[in-house]
Amino acid sequence: MGDGDADAQLMLRYAAGDARAFDELYAHHRGPLWRFIRRTVGSAAATDDVFQECWSRVIAHRENYRPEARFATWLYRIAHNCCMDHWRRSKRRDAREAADEEAVLAAADDASAEPLAGALTGETHERLAAALERLPAEQRAAFLLYVEGGLTVAEIGEATGVNAETAKSRLRYAAKRLRQALGDASPD
Amino acid sequence: MDMDEKDIDTQFSREPWRRLLQAPGDEPPETTDARIRAAARRDLAPRGHRGWLPISLAASFVLAVFIVQSQFGTLRRPVAADSAVGPGGAMDARIIERERAEENREPGRAPAAASKRAAPVREESQDDDYGYEESEFAADAAGAGPRIGGPERELKAASELQEDYLADRPAPPLESDLPAAAAPAAPSAERPAAERDLGEITVTGSRQRRDERRSAVPGVAAEEIAAQGLQKSETPPTPEVWYAAIEKLRADGRHDRAKRELERLEQAHPGWLAKHHPNDAPR
Question: A171: nearest CA in chain B?
């Protein structure tokens, strides 16, 4: 929590009028947050819009910030909400992403439902990116919040509005599908 | 960190996946960075000045109300009020004009008779309050401009007022000679008009203003105006009267015309301004 506390202090300093604190905070989170949004919304143009919208909300709500939770939890909850707003606006959620949780979990357990390993070529990074894009939105968000945001399972549940068990389940199935997609290139 | 998170962490390590996700250039563009940082600073900047907005709005409102009130008060200010508050020239002019009226009065006739004798002449040239045909006042009174109020109209209305005013009102306690004698000397033909003025007929805007002025103008001011009317057709106005009218123009904010009248006054009475009002004398 030491890192989170440092971010919270930076945010409090910014809320008090210290612009340099914001620069430091922004430099710390810009890359991971950008990648989280990039993998969540897909297109680069939409990523830029959602990224700016996210930071705009941080700026606008700085006076309401209370260090009751880690700053990263607060930041990624805002980012997650921005991504959801983007999806609602663009109406680009397909039927796969709108499927209920059980259907997604069943598909993840089925080894025959893993078409990516043979289809993806090139760098492992690209295969991972493609696999991520094929994940259900909830699982992808849980995975990215865990990896890029550094959030715990409980914080993922808090950021996405579900309980910790659901968050844990989403994360587990996301990891399983990504491992299947990468095959031997899986990092763990 | 509870047991569930430990389980996740042991099965699912962050760092290898994070390294795998990172790609060169997979970061926000510099323009986006600059835009966000600028927005953060911009949002901080006006915080200290937010209180000035309602204050400045309130100050603007108060200033607007003050300007409207001062302008409205200037338009409605009675002509005699300015004459009375002048630097002394108006009072002097009244005394001098009354003395001249006394000199012009025929033996055995009331002072008002002298004004009646001068009245027809004044009607011929009543467009010019100073008796000068080229006067700008004359052009205004003849309808050249769209002015509604102003010193010319007030002076004209006041000069029209003098006859029935002198006929209706009792003599003022301080200067009783002129108005007291004017009452019996008023022509009978004009008496009904004066009575109608007092409310029998529909009160028009100008008539209403005249009535207001009648109730607002003190007796001494009406005498001053009467003296002006007496003299205007016979001789040019005295510098005191002229200067009083110029001050009235200034009070109404018509400084350009006041300046021109000052120049004309200086031409008509060289040195008078330097002697009595050195601040207004041409340099």
Answer: B8
Contact between B239 and B269 under an 8 Å Cβ cutoff? The reply is yes
* Mutate: best of A76, A135, A153, partner B, most B CBs <10 A: A153
CA distance B267 to B191: 41
Please give the Cα distance from A174 to A180 (Å, whole number).
10
8 A C-beta contact, residue B149 and residue B262:
no
State how far residue A135 is from chain B, nearest Cα, in angstroms. Answer: 15
Q: Do A17 and B39 touch (CB under 8 A)?
A: no
| Interface touch A153/B33, C-beta < 8 Å | no
- How far A165 CA lies from chain B's nearest CA (Å)? 9
Residues of A with CB below 8 A from B32's CB?
Answer: 48, 51-52
CA distance B157 to B144: 17
For residue A171, give Cα distances in angstroms to A84, A96, A106, A137, A183: 18, 17, 15, 11, 18
Whether the complex's predicted ipTM surpasses the cut of 0.85: no
CA distance A153 to chain B (A): 6
Which B residues in the span 9-38 are in contact with A, Cβ-Cβ below 8 Å? 11-14, 16-23, 26-29, 32-33, 35-37
Q: What is the dihedral of CA A151, A78, A161, A165, to 10 degrees?
A: -10
In 3-state terms chain A splits into helix, strand, coil percentages (rounded to 5) of 80, 0, 20
pTM (predicted TM-score): 0.44
The distance of Cα B83 from the centroid of its chain, to the nearest Å, equals 14
Say yes or no for a CB contact (<8 Å) between B12 and A38.
no
pLDDT digits (tens, 9 = 90+) for A158-182: 888 899 899 999 998 998 888 888 8
| Residue B204 touches partner A, C-beta closer than 8 Å | no
Q: Which residues of chain B have pLDDT under 50?
A: 1-3, 80-86, 113-116, 118-129, 131-146, 161, 163-203, 215-220, 222-223, 226-227, 229-233
- Based on the number of CB atoms within 10 Å of its own CB, is B187 exposed (0-12), middle (13-18) or buried (19 or more)? exposed
| Domains of chain A, first to last | 2-90 (1.10.1740.10), 95-185 (1.10.10.10)
* Interchain pair A30, B21: CB under 8 A: no
| All structural domains of chain B with their residue ranges | 83-238
